[in-house]
Amino acid sequence: DELISQIAAGEVVERPASVVRELVDNALDAGATQVTLRLLAGGVRLISVEDDGQGILRDELPIAFKRHATSKIGSLHDLESVATMGFRGEALAAINSIADCAILSRASGINDAYLLDGRTGELKPVARSQGTTVEVKELFYSTPARRKFLKTDATELAHCIEAVRRHALARPDVGFAIWHEGKLVEQWRKCVVEGEPTDPLAALDQRLSDVLGPEFLAQSVRVDWHSKQANEYGQPALRVWGRAGVPDAARSRADQQFCYVNGRFVRDKVLTHAARSAYEDVLHGNRQPVYALYVAMDPTRVDVNVHPTKIEVRFRDSREVHQAVRHAVEDTLAAPRA
Ligand code: ADP
Ligand code: MG
């Protein structure tokens, strides 16, 4: 069982940033409003993700590391399918098999907190407020060959920051902090005030400015587009919003194209091509447009295949999505600027 987890982990955990992504995903799934990442040595020595989410009940803590561990695997064929499925539902089990892990958690409405040692399975009481901390130490300790593939701490740290950045751009309602070697390296505060009405586009603008810099905001225009067709709830079937950099944006950069589908960061040729074509007539040379675009659509019309090393989507009707994104960006660029 341990071996199977290790094989699955080897396929999907490329580097510390892959772990960071899974842990932050879990924190957000748990309803966290504040996520704090602490790293040592670019994440190789320690990755700790602390949240204030709903927590895990004492009796469910051991299951977190074991979910789907009931091994139905009996042949090499099955093993391959496990690896290619990535680790849907078994991220923690896989990570626990290649690092020294612990979970500390206090569930909402419960007065006690517990620490589960992933190695020994030992459970002991600890003190903490509501939420969960997952600690991952000495990643790849048992597979030195893999450890050798890692780059410098600075590079691994940059990848970890990038993984959090992608989440942060999707969740302006959540605060994020990143510490490395005891120093605060990034902090993005919650862009909503509890109990006060928020304009979601304004909150997003604030987050984009905090994460990508005020110049991104100054040199981009707001995208807010929706299709005329309605879905079964009477809402637009497709919505595209966010910000598109003006063509002459001085900081036209290759690494500032962010696309989200139903709240998930994705890399997708349909989306990038659509955005690129909207800029075709206005962007000269091989400049890259900068943008952060968010697509919301009927989840049954898109298949998001979440794999820790790549995030792919398959649209049921890619033409429809291509046109939507293209129109959304074109309309924005064509509109007179304020
Ligand atoms: P998945 O997220 O696909 O269910 P994981 O292996 O990532 O699989 O996590 C296993 C389980 O552990 C989750 O389903 C959840 O119940 C629990 N869990 C993990 N991290 C957290 C967290 N930060 N807060 C609350 N529960 C968590
Ligand atoms: Mg998960």
UniProtKB/TrEMBL annotation:
Span of domain DNA mismatch repair protein S5: 208-334
UniProt keywords, alphabetically: DNA damage, DNA repair
The UniProt record lists the keyword Metal-binding: no
Keyword DNA repair: yes
Coiled-coil segments: none
Family per similarity comment: Belongs to the DNA mismatch repair MutL/HexB family.
Protein task: This protein is involved in the repair of mismatches in DNA. It is required for dam-dependent methyl-directed DNA mismatch repair. May act as a 'molecular matchmaker', a protein that promotes the formation of a stable complex between two or more DNA-binding proteins in an ATP-dependent manner without itself being part of a final effector complex.
Name assigned to this protein: DNA mismatch repair protein MutL
Annotated source species: Rhodoferax saidenbachensis
Lineage of the species this protein comes from: Bacteria, Pseudomonadati, Pseudomonadota, Betaproteobacteria, Burkholderiales
Name of the coding gene: mutL
